[in-house]
């Protein structure tokens, strides 16, 4: 009985895993396009401009403290852009796997 159950779970897992890439489409909205208000869009544009400016800088003649400050600024910009960008997305397959694991544990 248990072997049939495990075999069926493995079969479902494989079916979901192999079907997901086929079902994935590029029509999903871009997080930049889904921004809530103009202020958020403006801040995201400022962050992108600053990151591009930092990437084009010549770091060879900077002191160690300046490079460290620049790295810290980049980390803060990344955290802020993630906070403005959106949330956590779970695929259908991941949700099914989590549910199955909870069923097996309980």
Automatic annotation (TrEMBL):
The name this protein goes by in its record: Seryl-tRNA synthetase
Signal peptide start and end residues: 1-24
Alphabetized UniProt keyword annotations: Membrane, Signal, Transmembrane, Transmembrane helix
UniProt keyword Transmembrane present: yes
Superkingdom of the source species: Bacteria
Record-annotated membrane-spanning stretches: 83-105
Organism: Sphingobacterium populi
